[in-house]
Structure formats: structure tokens, C-alpha cells
Amino acid sequence: MPQIGWFELLVIIIVAILVIGPKDFPIVLNKIGSWVGSFKRFFSDVQKNVNEITNLEEKDNKKDNKKDE
Q1: Residue 43 lies in a domain
Q2: Which tens digits make up the pLDDT trace of 12-60?
Q3: Helix or strand or coil: residue 2?
Q4: Is residue 33 helix, strand or coil?
């Protein structure tokens, strides 16, 4: 997987400023930041739900094993 260095990041930022414009650039960055935040929250909630489900299944399996003994 290719890695992005400082120079490449600087070029991307300069091109973005030229395309979007310096006046609207902070607004676009804010919008992108809010999108990234909502994606992180969504995936964190999904991961939490999956962990809860697997923990419930493990507890049920342990209870079943104790009953069998």
C-alpha cells in the first residue's frame, strides 16, 4: 500500500486550495471533519454492538455448559 509523505500531502493541500478557493477551504475541511467523525461514531457503535452480541453468546454457552455438568 503506498504511503503519503509530507511532500505529497502538501501538494494535495495546495491543489485543494486552488480548486476550492482559499475562502471556502476551511468550510470544506470542517464538513469533511464532521463526516469523518460521524463515520467513526457509526463504526464504533457497530463494533460495540458486535462485542455485546458475542459476549451474550459466550455467556449463554457457559450457562449451557454448566447445566450439562
Answers
A1: yes
A2: 999 999 999 999 999 999 999 999 999 999 999 999 999 988 887 777 6
A3: coil
A4: helix
Q: What pLDDT score was predicted for residue 42?
A: 97
Distances (CA, A) of 24 to 3, 18, 19: 28, 10, 10
Which cell is 2 given?
503506498
Residue recorded with cell 469523518? 36
Of the candidates 27, 25, 2, the residue with the CA atom closest to the CA atom of residue 13: 25
Does residue 9 belong to any structural domain of this protein?
no
Tell me if 55 is assigned to some domain: yes
Is there a domain that residue 38 lies in?
yes
What phi and psi, each to the nearest 5 degrees, are found at residue 5?
-90, -175
Residue 22 CB neighbours (<10 A): 8
Q: Are 25 and 16 in contact (CB under 8 A)?
A: yes
**How far apart, in whole angstroms, are the C-alpha atoms of residue 59 and residue 52?**
11
